[in-house]
Write a structure and sequence with these properties.
two-stranded antiparallel ribbon, 14% strand
C-alpha cells in the first residue's frame, strides 16, 4: 500500500467514494471538509457521520473541518447562505451557473496543498492529494477544468520548496457518477462495510430540508439519482418535496421524466 494521502471530503457521493478508495490503497489517510457557509451544510454532518462509521469499522481517518464560514457574506452564489434560490433542472441548463461559488476550488486546493506538503515534510514520505474529479464534471464550473488544475499546480510548485513530494491521485478522471457509484459498491465489499450505511451518510442535494432530507429536483440530486437508476438499486437517503418525505420511487420517476425531456430537447436542437 502507498503511504500518505489527503482527501477533500465534501460529504457528497463522489468524495465519499474517493475516501473509500483511498482507505483501500493508502496507510495514512487525512480527510478535510470545508465549512464555507454553504446552505447545504448537512453535507458536513454527513461527512462526520461517515468518518464515525468508518472508525467504528476499524478504518482510520485523520479528519478535520476547516472553518471558512465567514466567506458566505462576501461570496455571490446561490449555494451560500444569503444567496439566491438554488435553481432546479438539468446541469446543462444556463441557470445552473448560479450554483458556481467564485474561486471555491482554488481556495480548497490551496489549503489541501498546504496540508499535503506539511504531511510530506513531517513524514519524509511522498504524499498524494486525492481528487474526485470525473468526466461528468460540468463546463459551468471553470475550476473543474484541466487547464485550471494545471495552472493551479504550477503555481503551487513555483511557490513552495519540496513541492515535488506532493502528487495527485485521480482514479475517476475518465469515469462518470455511475462509474464512481459502481466502484463504491465494490469498495464496500472489499472493506467489509455496508453500502447502504455508507451512502445514507452522504448528501448530494443543494436544497436539503431542515430535517436534512434531500430534494430530488435540483441538478445535483437529479445527477445522483440517475447514477442509482443505472446501478439498479435504490438510493438509501431520504428524499422530500414541499409536501414532506417521499419514497425513492417518487424521486426516481421524476428524474426519469427530467432526463427524457432533456434528451428530447437535445434532439430538437440537433435538428434545428
Amino acid at each position: 500500500m502507498k503511504k500518505n494521502v489527503v482527501v477533500s471530503l465534501s460529504g457528497g457521493m463522489d468524495s465519499s467514494t474517493l475516501l473509500l478508495r483511498c482507505l483501500s490503497e493508502y496507510n495514512n489517510v487525512t480527510a478535510l471538509s470545508f465549512d464555507y457557509g454553504q446552505k447545504h451544510r448537512v453535507e458536513l454532518e454527513r461527512a462526520q457521520q461517515l468518518v464515525g462509521y468508518l472508525l467504528q469499522n476499524g478504518l482510520n481517518v485523520n479528519y478535520q473541518v476547516i472553518k471558512l464560514d465567514g466567506l458566505s457574506t462576501l461570496l455571490n452564489s446561490a449555494l451560500v447562505t444569503g444567496g439566491a434560490e438554488v435553481p432546479e433542472g438539468h446541469y446543462e441548463q444556463d441557470n445552473m451557473k448560479e450554483t458556481v461559488v467564485p474561486n471555491r476550488n482554488k481556495i480548497f486546493a490551496s489549503i489541501t496543498q498546504a496540508v499535503a506538503l506539511s504531511v510530506a515534510n513531517e513524514t519524509k514520505e511522498n504524499t498524494d492529494i486525492a481528487l474526485g474529479i470525473h468526466a461528468g464534471d460540468h463546463a459551468i464550473y471553470p475550476d473543474c477544468r484541466q487547464e485550471f488544475r494545471d495552472a493551479d499546480d504550477n503555481a503551487f510548485r513555483l511557490g513552495n520548496w519540496e513541492a515535488e513530494r506532493v502528487g495527485y491521485y485521480t482514479p475517476y478522471l475518465n469515469g462518470d457518477k455511475y462509474d464512481i457509484l459502481l466502484d463504491g459498491e465494490s469498495l464496500c465489499q472489499k472493506l467489509g462495510i455496508d453500502f447502504d450505511h455508507v451512502y445514507a451518510r452522504t448528501n448530494t442535494s443543494y436544497k436539503p430540508t431542515p430535517e436534512g432530507w434531500s430534494d430530488y429536483k435540483s441538478a445535483s440530486s437529479v445527477e445522483r439519482i440517475e447514477a442509482f437508476i443505472k446501478l439498479g438499486r435504490p438510493d438509501p437517503v431520504q428524499y422530500a418535496d414541499e409536501t414532506g418525505a417521499v419514497d425513492y420511487e417518487t424521486a426516481r420517476v421524476y428524474v426519469e421524466q427530467v432526463l427524457a425531456e432533456y434528451e428530447l430537447e437535445q434532439l430538437k436542437n440537433e435538428k434545428s
